[in-house]
Amino acid sequence: MSTYVPLISSGVAGPLGVLHLPRLWQKVSLESQGKLHPDYPGIGKGYDAMVLAALNLSEASVREFIKTRPSYVAFEAWVKAQPGVKLDKATIYKNNTAILGYIHDDATRKTILSAAGLPDDGSVNPGAVDLNNLDDWTTFHKEVLA
User: Fold this and answer.
1) Does one domain contain both 79 and 54?
2) By C-alpha distance, which of 128, 94, 97 is closest to 111?
3) Residues 49, 13: one domain?
4) From the centroid of its chain, how far is CA 91?
5) What is the pLDDT of residues 35-78, one digit of tens each?
6) Within 13 Å and on the Cβ side, how many CA atoms surround 85?
7) Cα 97 from Cα 94, distance rounded (Å)
8) Total structural domains in the chain?
């Protein structure tokens, strides 16, 4: 069976306007079917945890619902229906700002740039969203195209 590198960027939002939520859905969906590339967690301690905490969603309930194989639109409808969910504009803005403003530590940046064959000379945007995209593309190329 094939596994897949998640290629939805953390910088993408669905109709609710929550950055990273579509990527979270994709990763957990792939994981629930045993199709997520082994280098990726279904729900990790970074952006995944940030979004779940911001929206007041439990990891267990998200995993359980995703086992039903919902479309992304159905997943957002489920999110909206959760008791205690936080989807007000201020919460979404704060979450999105945190995601866009996150900068990886030096070691992570160096590892990602090195794997992509790029120098760590300040010429690449240091934002984690952009570096994570580069990491995804590098892994996809290595695993699928090369």
Assistant:
1) yes
2) 128
3) yes
4) 18
5) 999 999 999 999 999 999 999 999 999 999 999 999 999 999 99
6) 18
7) 5
8) 2
